[in-house]
Design goal:
Elements (H helix, E strand, L loop, with lengths): L1 H10 L2 E3 L5 E5 L6 H16 L7 E4 L2 H6 L14 H4 L3 H12 L19 H4 L18 H13 L10 E7 L5 E6 L6 E5 L16 E8 L8 H22 L7 E12 L12 E3 L16 E5 L4 E3 L7 E3 L13 E11 L2 E3 L4
Parallel strand pairs: 1-14, 2-3, 2-4, 4-7, 5-6, 6-8
Antiparallel strand pairs: 5-7, 8-13, 9-10, 10-11, 12-13
Helix pairs in contact: 2-8, 5-7
The structure holds zinc ion.
GO molecular function: aminoacylase activity; hydrolase activity, acting on ester bonds; metal ion binding
Cofactor: Zn(2+)
Keywords: Cell membrane, Cytoplasm, Hydrolase, Membrane, Metal-binding, Zinc
């Protein structure tokens, strides 16, 4: 009986390739400071020679980081759709990049989990084909150019050369706790899923074969809070420990996990003529990310004192409530549906 159960367990194990190339990126938004300081720490540790796992560590948007702004010209984390990346990478990389002096801050630490080292050259992918591309002019926003460089370094998106796993570090002003956002302690983790095809996926994490944003809040932009920084640091360390164990052939038993799938965004009430917002998030909703919102629950409090209620027919889970960076995007909060997803047992196929 025990043998049968053992065989049953192994017959349901999904074998996946080992992860030989992993990237941790911070500063994709230049005013989200936990990820920026975490990347700086990792780069320092690399210099000290005490990096425990082979990982490329990158500062995604160094200009925005320098200015402590979300972006310089356009949101970098919306520049990674397939269409946007089909621009003339040869022109971009050959001309504009050298003229603006972009530096890719990255390290490639020694590898302790794999039997053979991955040469750094294997990490530097060449730019993708320039066919079917849109022209690039001197007016092309800085972040569009930077996205090409990151795609060349970490992708190309959708190719066999792309990094196996890309973890992009973000902060939010919303009270989300530690979230993993994708198309993964002592800190509870929530999984948010944006149901977007790979071609249309716009964020940096979509460049890797697998990827996710690690989003930790609440933390005001331009500020680093030690509790938030520590949660992010622990999250990155757990990910790296997991990769070590996975690459060593450890079997991870399956189970179920709750996933929040994005359904829609809700904008602030606005004056139809001026488009200015006329209400703030209601105090009963503020900071209640991932707490079920029922039809009729308070959603906004207008500046004239009127409570505006959730008019949807279905109870949904709000998140990114009152995120500072989303005022310009017309998003007061997002709503998600929770579902339970069964995860099979997995192990790396290195032992075969
Ligand atoms: Zn961000």
């Amino acid at each position: 009986m025990q043998m049968d159960r053992h065989n049953h367990l192994w017959s349901n194990v999904v074998a996946l390739p080992a992860m030989s190339r992993v990237a941790v990126c911070g500063g994709t938004h230049g005013n989200e400071l936990s990820g920026i300081y975490l990347v700086r720490e990792r780069l320092k540790r690399r210099e000290d020679g005490i990096e425990p796992v082979s990982v490329a560590t990158l500062m995604s948007n160094p200009r925005a980081v320098q200015l402590c702004v979300r972006y310089v010209e356009t949101d970098l984390n919306r520049c990674f759709t397939r269409a946007a990346l089909r621009r003339r990478t040869d022109v971009l990389l050959g001309r504009r990049l050298s003229s603006v002096g972009l530096v890719c801050q990255a390290n490639f630490g020694p590898r302790l989990c794999r039997r053979e080292p991955t040469p750094q050259s294997a990490f530097i992918a060449t730019s993708s084909s320039a066919s079917a591309c849109a022209p690039v002019s001197e007016d092309t926003p800085y972040e569009m150019i930077r996205s090409q460089e990151l795609n060349a370094l970490l992708g190309p998106k959708g190719s066999a050369q792309a990094v196996d796993l890309l973890c992009d570090l973000h902060n939010t002003t919303a009270n989300t706790g530690l979230c993993l956002i994708t198309e993964m302690a002592s800190t509870p983790v929530r999984y948010v899923h944006f149901d977007i095809p790979l071609d249309e996926a716009y964020s940096l994490d979509s460049v890797g074969k697998h990827g996710f944003a690690m989003e930790v809040g609440p933390q005001p932009h331009g500020v680093v809070r030690s509790g938030i920084f520590s949660a992010m640091q622990e999250g990155v360390q757990l990910m790296l420990d997991w990769i070590c164990q996975f690459n060593s052939g450890t079997l991870f038993e399956g189970g179920s996990v709750d996933v929040f799938t994005m359904v829609k965004n809700i904008d602030y009430p606005r004056d139809p003529r001026t488009h200015m917002i006329t209400a703030a998030v209601h105090p009963d909703l503020q900071d209640r990310d991932f707490c079920l919102l029922h039809p009729g629950d308070p959603m906004f409090l207008s500046f004239s004192g009127e409570t505006l209620r959730y008019k949807g027919k279905e109870a949904l889970y709000p998140f990114f409530i009152n995120e500072a960076a989303y005022y310009e995007k017309g998003v007061a909060l997002s709503l998600a549906r929770k579902r339970r997803v069964e995860i099979p047992s997995i192990r790396s196929d290195t032992l075969r």
